[in-house]
Design the sequence.
């Protein structure tokens, strides 16, 4: 009979741990450059932020130009319909009307004279501005200068303004509606200012928050040199990034009213008095839809209202200055753990690696959901998991090698007695 040979155990060599750590770091870098880790980071971000508390604001109301309103107006919400809606909101005592419906300039001034008159008489309508990513250099139209923020010049992305004709000139303020989804189609961030002519053009939501808080342009300033950059609305600090881009926590539940009901005086004045009313198009070709973390779909007016609430209660997702330092420290710590793992038994090494990966993911989730801090720990998770996967491959390879050795030994002829 063939002799039963003991399986050979692989003894860790002196440099095995360091080689494993270097390999794990290199593979993790490859995953990051390939976009796998940033995508995993975004998936975790979306899941955590979707379960975060967005705050509340009792003085905001949404008025939707919805399918029923369009049907009641004969399929088209005309300039006269807009004028009637603004007149009714003014009569009901709305404190601010945030119009998140960009309208094309009329063919002739007389076509929209009633709307221009309604906007001017209300004296509380904030009108949306249209900007282009590129185009010939142009100065800001005069209507914009009533709302610009000199203290935030150069903070936001540079854009080229588009003249809005008589509507912006009649409005109490002009704010932009420029934002865009990330490469995966999810809207996660909203620029609070655009930069042009060395001044900041505020977002429609920021301009509305300024009016809600009864602030002047001088009361809005930049906060730097602290744990994270921020925007100061009076004494209220709102977390943003270095470009004054805000990451709102979407999910606020706000009352909604149909524009047709408001214009027809079917809504009690008490539902609109002293409210900040955000008017938006939720049906028809102008009804843009944005997907936000968690998979919900929001219209443009919803994004404005949700951002307004975040500004009002100073609640947004931020990346503290210490976040990346901690992330790099976690990567180095996991690499050192990988150095020590080859000296441990396989099951112990697996338990440690999986336990540390779970702990890092739980910490990132907690920071996002509870503290609204972005701390990118996915690279550290990948380092320790790569080592775990490498250990699995090594174990299976050793078992396979032992099995082949035993098979070869059995195939040898038996020695004669």
Sequence:
């Amino acid at each position: 009979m063939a002799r039963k040979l003991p399986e050979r155990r692989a003894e860790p060599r002196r440099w095995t741990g360091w080689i494993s750590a270097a390999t794990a770091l290199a593979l993790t870098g490859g995953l990051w450059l390939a976009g796998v880790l940033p995508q995993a980071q975004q998936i975790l971000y979306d899941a955590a932020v979707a379960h975060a508390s967005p705050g509340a604001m009792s003085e905001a109301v949404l008025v939707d130009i919805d399918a029923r309103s369009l049907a009641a107006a004969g399929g088209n919400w005309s300039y006269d319909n807009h004028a009637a809606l603004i007149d009714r909101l003014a009569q009901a005592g709305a404190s601010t009307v945030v119009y998140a419906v960009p309208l094309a300039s009329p063919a002739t001034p007389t076509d929209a004279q009633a709307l221009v008159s309604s906007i001017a008489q209300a004296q509380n309508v904030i009108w949306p501005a249209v900007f282009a990513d590129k185009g010939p250099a142009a100065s800001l139209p005069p209507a914009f200068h009533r709302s610009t923020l000199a203290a935030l010049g150069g903070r936001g992305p540079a854009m080229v303004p588009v003249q809005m004709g008589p509507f912006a000139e009649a409005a109490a303020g002009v704010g932009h509606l420029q934002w865009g989804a990330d490469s995966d189609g999810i809207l996660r961030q909203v620029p609070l200012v655009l930069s042009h002519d060395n001044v900041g053009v505020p977002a429609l939501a920021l301009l509305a928050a300024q009016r809600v808080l009864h602030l002047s342009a001088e009361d809005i300033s930049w906060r730097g040199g602290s744990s994270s950059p921020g925007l100061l609305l009076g004494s209220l600090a709102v977390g943003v990034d270095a470009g004054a881009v805000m990451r709102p926590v979407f999910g606020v539940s706000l009352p909604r009213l149909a524009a047709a009901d408001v214009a027809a005086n079917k809504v009690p004045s008490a539902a609109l008095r002293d409210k900040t009313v955000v008017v938006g198009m939720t049906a028809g070709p102008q009804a843009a839809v944005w997907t936000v973390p968690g998979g919900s779909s929001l219209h443009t007016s919803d994004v404005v209202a949700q951002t307004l609430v975040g500004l009002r209660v100073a609640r947004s997702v931020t990346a503290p200055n210490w976040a990346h330092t901690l992330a790099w420290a976690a990567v180095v710590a996991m690499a050192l753990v990988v150095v020590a793992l080859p000296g441990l038994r396989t099951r112990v090494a697996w338990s440690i690696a999986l336990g540390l990966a779970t702990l890092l993911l739980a910490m990132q989730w907690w920071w996002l959901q509870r503290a609204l801090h972005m701390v990118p720990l996915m690279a550290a998770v990948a380092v320790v998991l790569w080592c775990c996967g490498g250990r699995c491959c090594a174990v299976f390879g050793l078992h396979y090698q032992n099995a082949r050795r035993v098979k070869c030994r059995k195939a040898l002829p038996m020695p004669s007695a």
